[in-house]
Design a protein that fits this description.
The complex is a heterodimer of chains A (591) and B (930). Chain A is mainly alpha-helical and 591 residues long. Chain A has 18 helices and 10 strands. The longest helix of chain A has 26 residues. The longest helix of chain B is centred in the first third of the chain and has 19 residues.
């Protein structure tokens, strides 16, 4: 009898113990995606690639309310970058672009909303580099191409950080939670070399040019363009010097500049730009010259997505309504009013003054009764980028009226409200957006061939002067500028000598690359921010008024609509206080 | 090996039943012996080394409540309760054992009902009459057998069983009474509203909104259509709402069966007015619950007993309007100004305007939300003595199914309301807002919670040589919870044991452990071992104290051990690294969509439960037979609290920081009870005073680096409020100009002025300072007074709270905000004349961000002393009743929340500051026993 009990109890105990060790505490399989899933097929690994593009390709447009933080995609900066410099003014005062106008960018207000995104992209890139060879159904060649695309995106992000901060920590592997996490800043020189290594080692594995369904992916052209821009910046006065703009003392100054001037950096920049131009001519990438007029050529080059002049564009967003970002930050309030972030961007007279007349002469803006005639005489690129009084927005708004006081509605033109500069920015906002086409896909051009011509011209002039081509690239600095001017029906540049030509190249960049997120950074690398009317001093606009009994002309009067402040620390961005407090970074000087 | 648990359980049952069949053939002892020898799993009181508070169900049943948890205020030393308002069905207070020992999100007690893992929700749906006892297990040895769910304390509830000493006892009781809202806000009428609104406008430099003729009309009150003066609280609330409870229990035992049968009904019609006349759309607010229970124990054989527990409840709640809670209507009534519109614009036409709906309309015309909720508790336990193997050995197996299901029936519509408008000729017309629509229905909403709990025991309980007391227990636990909102069930499994040895009833040593696992953690991290040990010395059993006339009982206890809390917050399966879909990238000139997946929050493969090391030292004594006291001191060190490491992880890692077990909190305090229990002739009385205290301190929480040390929450109590320190009102413009800049817009004289803690001449986030306590008191005080004289009995229980801060927030305290009205609270507002005596900032009609920052101005000392419970009864007894088999008849009056001494100056209840009001309850009860 008792044996029977004991057996039963034994059975009971064994059952219990069996259950203690069995696996029913395990989570049942679900539809969750794990890291191993990512590397299990080509389809899956391409989702990681798309994620790397999504976080790693920035935009020159601003998506979304900055209060929403990271929820707003690739570039949560509100509004385009142009309002940060002397090109324009973001009309709604709360836009963070205006922080630069009051020199109130600080470590608690860093003006860099992509800080985390770049590191996320770089982390995914490291993961891709380490594991893509495990994917079973791709060829080794495709794996190499994926790695190459990723390394070029990494180079782009390090270039972005170089231009914001100078030297930053170099993260070249997939960081484990348990690692020692105190990686300090690297020098400007090391960061530039890291970028160049990534590009040089990748370029051979990339397709020469991505077209059709692969447009937007990194190809050799994008790699050459990033290299050209990196070397141009590295050769510029901000970095290519023995004295930093402000000193951190000792070796830390290497985070801010090279520590010496070397003309060879300009030579390398010229060579890289030449490589890119050679790539372009071999791969069907060319300046737009076939639209019938200089104005039409220029307009087409920025307005038509995926045109032959574009090397790389950001494509993170599907169509967005005209009432929201990025469109609502650009359209004048009375044209296509947005609910979210309604602003409009007004162009300053400081910028408009730079447009020559069609004969290449400087234009004076001293007030008078000839506004319409004056605007009609300007470089065609003015009309292709900017809408002045009586100008055309699109078919729905064929006449834009900007006369009267921008601060008061009484007696003013339809579009005068908040137009402090007297001109509205149109570039960046395709004309096709209308009450019929009320949602539109934003594509932001990051690299366009016109820039490369001007990179080439600037570097060639610095290295060899305006008219020399000792390396036999087949084009001088002057010729490059003239090619750019010619496609917009402008006469050749007139300048003699390296110094005078330098001013002309810079002037050409100001006009040709206006509003495309170049000027703010050019000001910094040329170190001209403290000049009157650049990043500090008076911002001029024109006050437009009707002339009694004259329907065809308007009176204009220049006036100062804003006085801006500049602090020399602004030559580089501050790292955020939260990041500095973690103890691994040296803050940039002055913050 | 993967085994279905149900198979195992049927094995347990089969084994037990099989043995039963065998043992039934054996010779029977007397039945009384058999009942006495049914093994119990609990240690007797004298043998315990841990800290446990207990209250019997008898002590809870005098007081009306629709929620038994509300009868526990001041009852269980160590248990801190926070009242949440009296809306029926949503009135379960927050419970904590010995305060809180963690800043993690899981601070709740582990609730065990009849030996099975359960929930506070389930407990709140029991009735006092069906409860045998409620025990609070506080220290490590008492709770270690609950392993990874024990650290926040364990509440053990036992339901009643029958008693074989009497064949049948019937108890019938009825309570009838009413509830009154306590301390409703005193809203100012239209004249005062308009006058003060003008004052607020003047403060902002604007011209008055109400001209003299309007003010005169409000003062005269003779034009209710155009110049209404509505107290919306008076319109929606009634002054008292009726309540009913009736219960019937029958219990007893015959031969080999004992039973407890219980039926209970509760009705509460809430504080909202009964809409009259009722239409098809309106239902009155109501709540009812019917509980039933049958607990039966059967001796199946000499060795085998079975215990069957079947309990359940059916609950119906209807709330007028479009929300399950009456809060929406009450909040609207607290918002609409008295002069906005009349209740009725004209016969059959409700008033209203573009800004506000009509609170009465919301109550009578919007339809209603009702739900039917059902709980079911079913359990079977078989216990078998195995004395034939060795005396004192027994086994027990049990399984329980518990279910809570709630199904909604929602009927909603919209209605038209009308704004009276007077044109220039004096003609009054009505502007219609909204439309009358058909009643629409939605029957689809439901919620379900259910669990299956199984446990099995091997129990050994024997006394050797009359002085060696040995008790050993080994148990296996399994439970699985399914919740309708979660895709996968929660599973827990484990073993636990207890070993107690006592020598000569003087020296006691106890060791307990839990070995438990949960499916929320990674393989290899799931199981944890939680040991605890205790010793006790019963000094009064020593020869030098035995039979001492003064010291009847004196015992010292000490325990130390490790327990866990697996309710750590965060998401489930944090050990898995997930990638989450994050929209598209649009490659190509045709923008074709490519999915993107982003690395989710970094996985933490080592994520685990919180652990607590707990020390408890206690002394208990009884002197002169009538004076008794207990004192327990405890220290708790809680570590591995889940937190996100903010400090020192650079952004360049590129992942979102994982949740990690890094936090540390210390918690310590005491419980003290001093009682006096005496009978003098026919006068019997008991006075018991108790106090308990728990103070915690965040030792480590990986915080974001701060510029100023005082901004860290580390080093303060859990939930430490950080507030701007209000230092008065700005006197004048000169004062403003010479003070630091406050960053929330332009300030004016009469606005609140804050202290510049860091001296940077700017008042911003960096000037928040740790001020005050939380709303959870550190100290609870209780005074229980009980008197009996002949047939009369009187009981009063006072409960107090100390070291507590409340924050005045919401419509009553924020005059004119969000288009709202003004209460008497704002009458002491700042004006240039009253600058020295003002108790409230200057009035403002616009959102005044400066004054409504979280600041010490709105904090109040939250200490209070309440008379929680009072009952006064008379028990009839006469030979005639005895003859009629009536054992007792008692009539009694009882009340809850009869008064409160506090710092609220009468503006609000110190625990329920807004929303559904706190209530006072008065009831008359009759209890008849056969």
């Amino acid at each position: 009898m008792s044996m029977k009990y004991i057996k039963r109890i034994l059975f009971l105990s064994v059952s219990i113990l069996a259950c203690m060790s069995c696996d029913y505490l395990d989570k049942a399989p679900g539809v969750d995606v794990t890291e191993d899933d990512i590397f299990s097929s080509r389809t899956n690994v391409e989702t990681l690639l798309a994620s790397i593009y999504q976080k790693g390709i920035h935009s020159n447009l601003g998506y979304g309310n900055p209060d929403n933080g990271a929820a707003d995609g690739t570039n949560p900066h509100s509004g385009p970058w142009t309002g940060r410099c002397d090109e324009a003014e973001q009309c709604a005062a709360w836009y963070e672009a205006n922080n630069w106008n009051s020199a109130s960018v600080t470590a608690d207000n860093t003006d860099d909303r992509r800080w985390d995104f770049r590191w996320q992209a770089i982390r995914m890139i490291s993961l891709m580099l380490e594991r893509v060879d495990e994917v079973p159904d791709i060829t080794p060649e495709y794996a190499s191409q994926l790695k190459a695309e990723c390394r070029v995106i990494r180079a782009l992000n390090y270039f972005e950080m170089l231009k914001f901060y100078g030297g930053v920590p170099i993260i070249d592997h997939h960081i484990d939670v348990n690692e020692d996490l105190m990686i300090p800043r690297s020098s400007v020189e090391d960061v530039v070399n890291f970028i160049l290594t990534d590009i040089d080692e990748s370029i051979g594995a990339l397709p020469p040019a991505q077209r059709g369904a692969n447009r937007g992916r990194i190809d050799q052209g994008a790699a050459y363009a990033i290299k050209s821009k990196t070397l141009l910046y590295a050769a510029s006065p901000l970095f290519n010097t023995d004295t930093p703009y402000m000193s951190l003392g000792g070796d830390s100054d290497r985070f801010l500049c090279y520590g010496n001037y070397d003309i060879a950096r300009w030579e390398e920049a010229a060579s890289a730009a030449n490589d890119c131009l050679k790539w372009a001519s071999a791969n069907g990438c060319h300046l737009i010259t076939d639209q019938g007029s200089g104005e039409a050529n220029y307009r087409y080059s920025w307005e038509q997505y995926d045109n032959a002049e574009i090397i790389l564009a950001e494509k993170a967003h599907s169509s967005l309504g005209k009432w929201t970002w990025p469109w609502s930050s650009i359209a004048p309030p009375n044209i296509y009013a947005g609910n979210a972030g309604q602003s409009g961007i007004t162009v300053t007279l400081n910028h408009v003054r730079k447009y020559e007349d069609r004969d290449g002469n400087a234009v004076e803006w001293n007030g008078g009764d000839d506004l319409q005639a004056k605007m009609a005489s300007l470089d065609p690129r003015f009309a292709a980028s900017i809408v002045g009084n009586g100008g055309r927005w699109n078919d729905e708004f064929p006449e834009v009226w900007i006369y009267g006081n921008p601060n008061s509605g009484a007696g003013c033109g339809h579009d005068a409200s908040t137009c402090y500069g007297g001109f509205w920015l149109h570039k960046l906002y395709p004309s096709v957006i209308s009450n019929n086409v009320w949602t539109y896909t934003p594509n932001s051009t990051l690299f366009q061939l016109n820039e490369i011509y001007l990179n080439y011209a600037e570097a060639m002039n610095e290295a060899y002067g305006p008219d020399a081509d000792p390396e036999g690239y087949g084009m001088t600095a002057r010729q490059a500028v003239n090619i750019i001017r010619a496609r917009s029906d402008m006469p050749d540049v007139v300048a003699s000598g390296q110094d005078e030509f330098r001013e002309k190249v810079r002037h050409e960049r100001d006009i040709e690359l206006a509003f495309d997120n170049h000027r703010f950074w050019d000001i910094r690398r040329w170190m001209i921010a403290e000049e009157e009317g650049v990043m500090q001093g008076n911002m001029w606009g024109i006050q437009v008024s009707r002339i009694e009994g004259n329907d065809s002309e308007y009176h204009y009067e220049p006036y100062v609509f804003e006085t801006r402040n500049w602090n020399r620390r602004g030559y580089l961005h501050p790292f955020s206080t939260a990041e500095i407090n973690k103890g691994y970074l040296v803050q940039n000087p002055g913050y | 090996m993967k085994l279905n648990n149900k198979i195992i359980l049927s094995c347990i049952i089969a084994v037990c039943a099989g043995t039963g069949a065998v043992s039934a053939q054996e010779a029977a002892d007397t039945l009384a012996d058999r009942w006495d020898s049914v093994p119990t799993l609990d240690l007797p009181d004298w043998q315990m080394t841990g800290a446990v508070s207990r209250i019997g169900g008898d002590g809870l049943s005098d007081f009306y409540t629709s929620n038994v948890v509300n009868t526990l205020f001041g009852r269980l030393p160590g248990l801190t309760l926070q009242e949440v308002g009296a809306e029926p069905g949503a009135d379960t207070p927050t419970l904590n054992s010995r305060g809180v020992g963690t800043f993690g999100s899981g601070t709740g007690l582990f609730v065990v009902i009849d030996g099975f893992a359960s929930t506070l929700d389930f407990f709140s749906r029991l009735t006092p009459e069906e409860i045998e006892s409620v025990e609070l297990l506080k220290d490590a040895t008492a709770t270690a057998i609950y392993g990874n769910r024990a650290a926040n304390g364990v509440l053990v509830v036992k339901t009643r069983h029958g008693n074989v000493s009497s064949p049948l006892k019937i108890d019938f009781g009825v309570k009838v009474g009413f509830q009154q809202p306590l301390r409703l806000p005193e809203w100012l009428g239209s004249y005062d509203y308009a006058t003060l609104y003008n004052e607020a406008l003047a403060n902002e430099g604007q011209s008055p909104m109400y001209q003299q003729d309007a003010l005169d009309a409000y003062a005269a009150g003779d034009s209710p259509l155009l110049y209404p003066d509505v107290n919306w609280y008076d319109e929606i609330f009634r002054s008292a709402s009726p309540i009913y409870v009736y219960n019937l229990t029958a219990s007893g035992g015959i031969n080999s069966v004992r039973y407890f049968v219980h039926f209970n009904g509760v009705n509460n019609y809430g504080l909202l007015r009964n809409p009259m006349p009722t239409n098809d759309f309106a239902r009155r607010q109501s709540f009812s619950r019917y509980n039933f229970r049958t607990n039966v124990d059967v001796i199946l054989s000499k060795r085998l007993t079975a215990s069957i527990i079947l309990g359940g409840s059916v609950e119906d709640k209807t709330t007028p309007g479009v929300s399950e809670s009456a809060w929406n209507i009450i909040d609207l009534a607290a918002n609409v100004p008295p002069n906005a519109f009349p209740v009725l614009a004209s016969e059959g036409k409700l008033g209203g305007n573009a800004t506000f709906a009509n609170p009465i309309g919301e109550m009578t015309e919007r339809g209603y939300i009702s739900y039917n909720g059902r709980t079911a508790q079913a359990a079977l336990r078989l216990t078998e003595r195995l004395d034939f193997i060795t005396p004192g050995l027994s086994v027990s197996g049990a399984i329980s199914f518990n279910n809570y299901y709630k199904a909604y029936s929602n009927k909603t519509r919209t209605y038209a309301r009308y704004t009276p408008v007077q044109d220039s000729s004096g003609e009054i017309s009505f502007t219609q807002i909204g439309e009358d629509t058909e009643l629409g229905g939605d029957e689809s909403q439901s919620y379900q919670w259910r669990n299956i709990v199984a446990n099995a025991f091997i129990n050994y309980d024997r006394v050797f040589d009359s002085r060696h007391y040995v008790k050993a227990l080994l148990r296996y636990d399994y439970d699985e919870y399914t919740i309708s909102s979660e895709t996968l069930p929660y599973r827990n499994v484990g073993m636990a044991g207890q070993l107690s040895y006592s020598y000569d009833r003087r020296y006691i040593a106890e060791f307990t452990f839990g070995y438990h696992g949960t499916g929320n953690f990674a393989p290899g991290q799931r199981f944890g071992f939680f040991p605890a040990g205790g010793i006790s010395w019963v000094i009064s059993e020593e020869n030098f104290l035995k039979d001492n006339p003064v010291v009847n009982h004196l015992k010292l206890r000490a325990t130390y051990g490790l327990v866990g809390n697996s309710d750590i917050g965060g998401s489930r399966w944090m050990y898995n690294q997930y990638y989450n879909w994050n929209g598209y990238y649009l490659f190509g000139d045709q923008y074709s969509q490519s999915d993107t997946y982003l690395e989710g929050t970094k996985a933490n493969p080592y994520v685990t439960w919180e652990k607590a090391r707990k020390l408890n030292v206690g002394v208990e004594a009884r002197l002169f037979d009538y004076l008794y006291f207990t004192f327990d001191y405890f220290r708790e060190h809680r570590y591995d609290i889940l937190t996100t490491p903010a400090a020192n992880i650079p952004s360049y890692v590129g992942f979102s920081r994982p949740s990690m077990n890094l936090g540390i909190v210390d918690n310590n305090g005491f419980e003290a009870v001093l009682g006096y229990n005496r009978t003098a002739g026919e006068f019997r009385y008991k006075v018991e005073a108790s106090a308990w205290y728990a103070h915690n301190n965040v030792v480590y929480n990986s915080e974001v680096p701060q510029i100023y040390d005082y901004l860290y929450s580390t080093g303060h109590i859990v939930g430490q409020p950080f507030a701007y320190e209000a230092i008065g009102f700005f006197r004048d413009q000169e004062d403003i100009d010479s003070s630091p800049t406050q960053v929330w817009g332009e300030v004016y004289p009469g606005d609140i002025k804050y202290k510049d803690q860091n001296g940077d001449n700017v008042i911003n986030e960096e000037d928040k300072y740790p001020i005050g306590y939380t709303s959870r008191p550190e100290v609870t005080l209780a005074l229980d007074l009980q008197f009996q004289y002949k047939g009369f009995d009187l009981q009063m229980l006072f409960q107090g709270a100390v070291n507590r801060t409340v924050y005045l927030d919401g419509r009553q305290f924020q005059a004119f905000q969000n288009n709202g009205k003004i209460s008497s609270f704002a009458l002491g507002r700042w004006t240039p004349e009253t600058a020295d005596t003002a108790t409230y900032p200057r009035l403002a009609t616009t959102g005044n961000e400066n004054n409504y920052q979280y600041s010490s101005f709105w904090q109040r000392n939250g200490n209070f002393l309440k008379l929680r419970y009072l009952s006064f009864g008379y028990t009839f007894s006469s030979p005639a009743m005895k003859k009629a088999n009536v054992d007792g008849l008692r009539i009694y009056l009882s009340g809850t929340n009869l008064f409160s001494l506090d710092y609220m100056q009468g503006y609000c209840d110190p625990e329920v500051l807004s929303g559904y009001p706190a209530v006072r309850t008065l009831s008359l009860g009759v209890d008849l026993k056969f």
